[in-house]
User: Which sequence fits this backbone?
C-alpha cells in the first residue's frame, strides 16, 4: 500500500471517528433538551415510584424531590421511614406531607394550640435525632408547664431553604393547620439560592461536552447523581456558588445571592429585596390569619442575621437572639472555642446541638411569656 493511500485512509478514519463523536454529542444534547421538556407530573411519578426503605442510606438530595411551586423549588419526600443520610449521621422520618414532625389532622381540635416552624437546616435539626430541634423541645416544654392545653407543632423546615421559600411553604402548605404561632428561624444565608435547583441545560454551550459528562459520570471520573437516581427526569442539581472574594478566601463560597447572576426562574428568591418582601408577606398573613410571629437567630453576631432581626422587629415580630445565651453557657462551663464545643453537632459544624436547641427552646418560651403571646393562646 502506498504511503499516500495509507495517509488518505487514516485521515478518512479520523474524520469518520470525529464525525461519530460529533453526532454522539449532538444526540446527547437533543436528549438533554427532551429531558428538560419532561413534565412535573412525570418527575413526581418517578420519585413516587422509587421508594425509600427503612434503614436505606441516601445522599441529602435523594431525600428531597422537586416541588411544583417555583418559590419552593424542592421539598422533603413524604412518608420516609427511618432513612439514613450519612452526612447527618441520624435517621430521618417524614409524615405524609413531607414534614419532619408528627402526623396531625388538618382540622385543629378545640383546646389545641399549634405552632408552625419555617426555616432551613437549623430549625430542621441537622444531624439531630428526631424531636431534638428547638421547635420540638419548645413544644415539650409547653406541654410540661401548661397541660391545660394540647400543644402541637408542624416543622416545615428543610435544609437549604431561604426566607422566600420558607414563607411560601407556610402559605402553600401550613396555613391549613390554623397556626396560633409561627416560628421563623433566620440564618445568614437566607438571601442566597437554596442548596438545590431544578437542573437545566445550556444546549449550545461550548464549555461543556454532554458526551464526556455522560461517560465521566458512569466511570466515576465526574461526580454525578447516585446510580439509582440517574434516570430521574430533571434531577435536582447543586445551585451555583458565589464568587470567592478576599473575605471568603479559604472557605467554601456561599450560594449565589446576586439576582443578576442566577437563573431567571429563581431571581425572585434571592437578595435583600426578596427577603424583605417575604417578611412583608409574612406580616400580612399574620394579620389576616390571626397568628403571632416569633423570629429566632442563633448567630445574630453575624451582620446578616442582625439585619434580619432588625427587619423582623420593624414588622412587629417578636425576636429571640440565642447567641448571647450560648456565650453565657460557654463562660459558665469554661468553654473557649464554640466550634469544638458541645453546642455544635460536630467539630467545626456550626449547626446547633441538642443542648443549644434546648437553650433556644427555653429562650423562646420566655419570649412567648414576656410578649403576652402565651397569655393570648391560653385564653
Assistant:
Amino acid at each position: 500500500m502506498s504511503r499516500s493511500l495509507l495517509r488518505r485512509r487514516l485521515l478518512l478514519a479520523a474524520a469518520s471517528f470525529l464525525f461519530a463523536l460529533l453526532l454522539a454529542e449532538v444526540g446527547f444534547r437533543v436528549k438533554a433538551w427532551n429531558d428538560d421538556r419532561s413534565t412535573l407530573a412525570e418527575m413526581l411519578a418517578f420519585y413516587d415510584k422509587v421508594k425509600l426503605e427503612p434503614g436505606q442510606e441516601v445522599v441529602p438530595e435523594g431525600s428531597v424531590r422537586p416541588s411544583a411551586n417555583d418559590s419552593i423549588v424542592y421539598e422533603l419526600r413524604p412518608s420516609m421511614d427511618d432513612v439514613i443520610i450519612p452526612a447527618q449521621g441520624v435517621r430521618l422520618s417524614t409524615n405524609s406531607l413531607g414534614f419532619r414532625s408528627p402526623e396531625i389532622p388538618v382540622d385543629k381540635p378545640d383546646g389545641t394550640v399549634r405552632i408552625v416552624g419555617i426555616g432551613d437546616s437549623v430549625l430542621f435539626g441537622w444531624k439531630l435525632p428526631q424531636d431534638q430541634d428547638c421547635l420540638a423541645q419548645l413544644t415539650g416544654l409547653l406541654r410540661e408547664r401548661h397541660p391545660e392545653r394540647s400543644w402541637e407543632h408542624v416543622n416545615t423546615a428543610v435544609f437549604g431553604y431561604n426566607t422566600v421559600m420558607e414563607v411560601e411553604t407556610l402559605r402553600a402548605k401550613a396555613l391549613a393547620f390554623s397556626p396560633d404561632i409561627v416560628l421563623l428561624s433566620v440564618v445568614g444565608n437566607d438571601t442566597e439560592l437554596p442548596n438545590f435547583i431544578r437542573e437545566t441545560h445550556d444546549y449550545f454551550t461550548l464549555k461543556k461536552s454532554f458526551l464526556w459528562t455522560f461517560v465521566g459520570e458512569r466511570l466515576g471520573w465526574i461526580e454525578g447523581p447516585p446510580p439509582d437516581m440517574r434516570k430521574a427526569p430533571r434531577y435536582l442539581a447543586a445551585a451555583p456558588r458565589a464568587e470567592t472574594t478576599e473575605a471568603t478566601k479559604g472557605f467554601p463560597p456561599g450560594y449565589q445571592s446576586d439576582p443578576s447572576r442566577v437563573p431567571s426562574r429563581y431571581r425572585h428568591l434571592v437578595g435583600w429585596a426578596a427577603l424583605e418582601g417575604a417578611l412583608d408577606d409574612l406580616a400580612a398573613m399574620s394579620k389576616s390569619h390571626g397568628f403571632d410571629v416569633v423570629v429566632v437567630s442563633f448567630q445574630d453576631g453575624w451582620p446578616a442575621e442582625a439585619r434580619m432581626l432588625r427587619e423582623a422587629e420593624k414588622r412587629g415580630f417578636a425576636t429571640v437572639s440565642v447567641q448571647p445565651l450560648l456565650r453565657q453557657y460557654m463562660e459558665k462551663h469554661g468553654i473557649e472555642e464554640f466550634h469544638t464545643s458541645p453546642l455544635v453537632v460536630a467539630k467545626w459544624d456550626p449547626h446547633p446541638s441538642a443542648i443549644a436547641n434546648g437553650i433556644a427552646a427555653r429562650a423562646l418560651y420566655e419570649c412567648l411569656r414576656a410578649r403576652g403571646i402565651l397569655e393570648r393562646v391560653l385564653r
User: Anything to note?
Assistant: Residues 38-98+208-238 form one domain. Residues 25 and 186 are 44 Å apart (CA to CA).
